[in-house]
Amino acid sequence: MIDGIYKVTFVGPETGSGVIVIRNVHFNGGDGYFYYSGVFSESIGEVTASFKIKRHTPGSASVFGRDSLTVTLKGFAGKKDFTFEAPNKTFSLSGKWLEPVNFGPSVPAKCAS
Fold it and tell me: Which fold has domain 4-99?
């Protein structure tokens, strides 16, 4: 997978979508109710996604049925897309590249006095 901004879709008992930013093998993202943080690893053509999910705003039901958890999924990744499934196939995660990451030059933040 190339670095960039990806739309992600979770499918399980519930369906949800959000956005993640992948830089190197790490990713961070979220949606209106949850944030996600994790890492991808690859071995002999199979990719593993290990990530934490945590609720930041009350509301919509979690596709996982819980408000905070750690998930590890296995699947396959192309250059600009990926698909992962839970071992019991009750849950899947897919992603599609949207655009490159542009962090711009590193500039110190200015604080108001």
Answer: Lipocalin (2.40.128)
